[in-house]
TrEMBL record:
The keyword Coiled coil applies. Pfam families: Beta-barrel_YknX (PF25990), BSH_CzcB (PF25973), BSH_RND (PF25917). This is Efflux transporter, RND family, MFP subunit. InterPro entries: Beta-barrel_YknX, BSH_CzcB-like, MdtA-like_BSH, RND_pump_MFP, UPF0194_transport. GO terms for cellular component: cell envelope; membrane.
């Protein structure tokens, strides 16, 4: 065979190889494209009902539990209930006695009374800082000036009643025993002779020895008119009218002016104001002096503090005495009791943390479970919201509960804040304290709304989009549609606007790795995240449809 023939044959083989290679490559590429198209998944916009449900689990505990600690020293005199007994709120549980406390209480009561009396006396002194005229008359003398210090019983001024006069008449012992203050008397003037009425205002109880050796008892008789004439001796004779008859004075006596009355201070202080001058006519009750109150006011403040201290001391003693009687604070069952009659109680000398409580009372009438709820979900939870409770220990039964309390302040852990939500349920025989229970509450629901799987939503620049599916299963950027979303759970989301019922959209698992990076962002804020750990063995709440 010639070289020319061989060369032509080789060229033919190469041409055939190229043709077959191109054919098989085209078929393979077509098959791969067909397979990729077959892997595309989508969902149709449909109408349905949507619920957002919070779920969690925790330990069921009594709603009320009280630990009874004895607060005062004493001896247990009486124990009225035993462990396991059912008690009512206000039932007397224990009675203690303490003789020292009773004596201390009595002393505190007496001290309080004494401090009250002291304060009253100081207030009375304050009222005595203003001094008034004791009777009508003329100011004969003013014996102090402003700023002078005076003591109690110091004479500040004298007043004389010029509308009266008096006479001092001597009597002997046999007469004086019949004469009494307040008796009437006849005063007879001798030149000229006339008689006026007087009144016994004073009698001597101690006789006066005269120069002749006689003992006289002087009686002062006061007349309501002034018969005294200055620089003139006016003699009179006096009869005192007694129950035994008239008693005649042993000797005549001279008319005298009415005795001046001393105006005295009843307290120690300084003269602040003087309101009358010598020679001034004053009326009974007229203000004459005022004394400084600075020291008295200071004494009042100090005494008020002393009184308050005495009141607090008595209140403390009464509280301690009341604590000798220990009552049940709640209805319930005594599940623990650690005192007996005759026990000596000394909480004041021992740490409460190192000793057992006197009793523990539990009320099983209402049970509770406390669950932490994520900050993104807490505003969807309301007081009174119904709750479904189940327990593995009680299969096929659902118990009703409700939200009783929502914590005002959250607790932060790992940059996530949770709020404790207290859920309560009435006691039923099947549910025991300490059981682990599962809790569900519907926090949002809508009926007959457009819904899509949550994986259909893509996020760009804080906006929500879906990718419409074409008839051939291929997509382009022009198929991206913005939508408005509503409530959502872990599986489905409400579509408020942007697409209509029957539209088909692509799901996240239908896209290539390159499109995933642009079509799926962070979880939307409306989506409820799983909760953090729950105290006392509880777990947080997450949301499910």
């Amino acid at each position: 065979m010639s070289k020319k023939v061989i060369k032509i044959a080789v060229i033919g083989v190469l041409i055939i190889a190229v043709i077959f290679t191109g054919y098989f490559w085209k078929r393979k590429n077509s098959s791969m494209r067909k397979t990729a198209a077959q892997q595309v998944s989508s969902a149709q916009v449909t109408k349905g009902d949507l619920e957002v449900v919070l779920k969690g689990s925790g330990t069921l505990l009594p709603m009320e539990q009280e630990t009874i600690n004895l607060k005062v020293d004493g001896t247990v005199k009486k124990v009225y209930f035993e462990e396991g007994d059912v008690v009512k709120k206000g039932d007397l549980l224990f009675e203690l006695e303490d003789e020292d406390l009773s004596i201390s209480l009595e002393k505190s009561q007496l001290s309080l009374i004494q401090q009250q009396i002291n304060l009253q006396e100081i207030n009375e002194q304050k009222q005595k800082a203003v001094i008034y005229a004791p009777e009508d008359g003329v100011v004969k003398s003013v014996d102090v000036k402003v700023g002078d210090s005076v003591n109690a019983n110091s004479v500040l001024a004298t007043i004389q009643d010029q509308n009266k006069c008096q006479v001092k008449v001597p009597f002997i012992s046999s007469q004086i025993k019949n004469i009494k203050q307040g008796q009437k008397a006849e005063v007879m003037f001798l030149d000229p002779i006339y008689t006026v009425e007087g009144e016994v205002t004073k009698t001597d109880t101690v006789g006066t020895l005269t120069s002749t050796g006689s003992i006289y008892y002087y009686v002062t008789v006061t007349m309501n008119s002034n018969y005294y004439v200055e620089e003139k001796d006016t003699a009179v004779q006096v009869h005192v009218i007694t129950d035994s008859g008239k008693e005649l004075g042993i000797e005549q006596a001279l008319i005298e002016p009415e005795e001046a009355v001393d105006v005295k201070s009843e307290i120690s202080s300084k003269v602040k104001e003087i309101y009358a001058e010598e020679g001034e006519v004053v009326k009974k009750g007229q203000k004459l002096f005022s004394l400084d109150l600075e020291d008295i006011n200071r004494d009042i403040e100090k005494q008020q503090l002393t009184l308050q201290q005495a009141e607090l001391d008595l209140k403390s003693k009464i509280s301690q005495l009341e604590n000798l009687l220990v009552y049940s604070p709640i209805d319930g069952t005594i599940i623990e009791q650690n005192v007996r009659e005759g026990d000596l109680i000394r909480p004041s000398t021992s740490s409460s943390s190192s000793s057992d409580p006197a009793a523990v009372i539990v009320n099983y009438a209402k049970m509770q479970v406390v669950l932490p709820v994520d900050e993104l979900d807490i505003n969807n939870v309301e007081i009174g919201m119904p709750v479904k409770i189940t327990a593995e220990a009680v299969p096929d039964q659902v118990f009703e509960g409700q939200v009783e309390k929502i914590a005002e302040q959250g607790q932060s852990q790992n940059n996530v804040s949770t709020f404790d939500v207290t859920i309560t349920t009435d006691k039923v025989d099947e549910l025991k304290a300490g059981m682990t229970v599962d809790v569900e509450m519907v926090v949002a629901s809508k009926q007959d709304v457009l819904i899509l799987p949550i994986t259909a939503i893509q996020y760009r620049n804080n906006k929500s989009y879906v990718m419409l599916a074409s008839n051939g299963g291929e997509t382009s950027s022009s198929d991206m549609v913005e939508v408005e979303t509503g409530i959502s759970n872990d599986e489905y989301v409400e579509i408020v606007s942007g697409v209509k019922q029957g539209d088909r959209v692509l799901l996240s698992n239908s896209t290539s790795s390159s499109s995933n990076s642009t079509r799926f962002g962070n979880q939307p804020a409306g989506q409820m995240a799983p909760m953090g750990p729950m105290p006392s063995g509880g777990s947080g709440m997450d949301n499910r449809r």
